[in-house]
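Below is just one:
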Amino acid sequence: MLEDRLTHLDENGTAHMVDVGSKPETERLAVAGGEVLMQPETLRLIAEGALKKGDVLSVAKIAGIMAAKRTSELIPLCHPLPLTHIEVTLTVDAVHNRILIQATARTVGKTGVEMEALTAVSVAALTLYDMAKAVDRAMRIQNIRLLEKHGGKSGSYLAEDTTDPPAAE
């Protein structure tokens, strides 16, 4: 049955928040990734901190952390979670003219932190775009996905390929 697979639908197919009250608390971890492709000159300006808006990488990192903490306010059926850790890293990849973003979220709770990690990556990418759009409106945000998760009833997940090259131009 569909509602057995899609946990946010009740027996009538209506969206609802899952009741996690009877689930045990366990350690939960999720890692998400994504990338922002850009022109080589844009990447250089960001890497050198030469954009007028300032230190783009630091601002994007902080934006991702802040977003993870507010995920339940952005995604209607997400539970508010007490995050025990959130880390966002941005790596300049000059070979492929991109910035790789990775977020790791942790909690001890009754539900997973996948959405918090994905939200952190998404908002960090949007922040990069916002801060550099004056010099490169053609930047592309792509490949935002869950890379890994651990804990909970469904166990662990590890993406098969976590080193996707950028899409063909």
